[in-house]
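quick one, 338 residues, struct below
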Amino acid sequence: MTVPTITNLPTPPSRTDAPAQFVARADSLLGGLPTFVSETNALANYLENRAQEAEGARDAAITARNAAQTAASNATTNGAQQVTLAAGEVTKATNKANEAAASAQHAEDMRDSAQNIAAMIGDDAGLPALEGNAKKVFRVNASATGVELAVGVAQGYEQFLTSGTWTKPIDATWVFVEVIGGGGGGAAYAAAGQLLLGGLGGDVVFRILRAADLPPAVSVTVGAGAAAGSDGGTSSFGSLITATGGKAGASAGSLGSGDVALLFRAVSFSRALSASAGNGLSTTSTTWGLDATASDVAGAGGASPGANGAGPGGGGAAGDSATAAGQGAAGRVRVWYL
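---
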């Protein structure tokens, strides 16, 4: 709002004025008084309003100050209370930690005592010491009077008669693997006067491996037994061990009339360590000598004309004019671990 203004009054009359001038000035002064009174009242009203507004602002300021003082006081009180509560929680946590430490120490003391007692009892009972024998197996001794460390006893075993995957146990230290190739098929009869051979037995390979040198999983292949006249399939343990399948039996030539019949077992021409081969025969006399017998480490070869080899890895026998040649037996893979 604009501040009201007061118009200046005319020059008032003076005793020294001439009568006519005195009258004129007096009239002019009296004529200006109503306007002067109105403007003075307006200014007074304006000043009164401003005074009231100033008082209102003062009261509001006092109220805000009081509220601020109250809030500050409350904040101080609440803050002190929160600090006190936090200090109490810290004390509780410290006490719990101390109790837990004491419990842990008590548990360790009890464990040590139990181990000492167990060691004394073990000594009295003849038990082997625990220290230095982690993951080793105990077994009853030969006299059945106590226990001993089962050194060299396998912890696990798995046999594969078909191809698959061997997964290394997490606690394995040494792995023993036996791999046997598939047996070869026997020679088929073609004409009289032939000397026919049985199929060779599959190779047998043993190997001891460090578990740390092996991957987590190893692909295992089991060689198939061969049909007549075919080679046996190769067996393998990953790329680490391979056992070749037995060779197929074949014709070794012709026999003259009256020749003594001979037995040809293919193992006679085979590796030193393999499954047995199938029997051979002379088609001139069709006489069999000694039967094919079981290998010390794998399957036997077929013993009569056309007989299949026995698993694992035995070679098939030769055929004759009445019987088809025998098939070789499938190989095998076995895994032990310590």
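DSSP finds one helix and 13 strands in the chain.
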